């Protein structure tokens, strides 16, 4: 039986707190409950997996968050250390895979020596966008087949993004507001800036009103965001590739 961990990095009430966030990730990423064991970690409450947990798990998914990867708080510092430990594992040892989503993606970049900063236009990105493959992606087994039918559309919701990759990381996909949309950090570590686990309708209903008010968006800006959420997203394809990656065997 394979064992996976979901590291919830948010305790936001509108999403049902950390418990509901973990349940959401299980709903999207669990392949077969009879052949898998999933463990939830409430990171914002101090529940962060330890280095010694690495050999006990086959993979971890790190969720999004309203926090910044640059915040100097204890649980984030511990997660950075955990990611570095996973990256340092040699091929002779069991290497669980790490998949970062949005904040998780940014946290990985930060942990391994990259830089995370404000979006290029200094505004919050909240819309669906097309994600396009890079040349390097055609040799990447981790996302094999993901872009066979062309660019993919996914939900974007972030105030920051990866602005500089750590040494050795490879950009696999890009989007209009994020140069490093999908990144292979290590053979066992993969990051996605987009939110394949979030429905566009949820972004419009739960996030747009708050962001529009806090950022003082005008009616045109709000309409642009809202209209983008009417377009069909390819979250199933992205989820499929992530699940296959988590369950794959590294040579």
TrEMBL record:
Gene3D superfamilies: 3.40.50.880. It comes from Exaiptasia diaphana (Tropical sea anemone). Residues 53-208 form the Glutamine amidotransferase domain. CDD domains: GATase1_1. PANTHER family: GLUTAMINE AMIDOTRANSFERASE YLR126C-RELATED (PTHR42695). This is Glutamine amidotransferase domain-containing protein. One of its GO terms (cellular component) is cytosol. InterPro entries: ChyE-like, Class_I_gatase-like, GATASE. It comes from the Eukaryota.
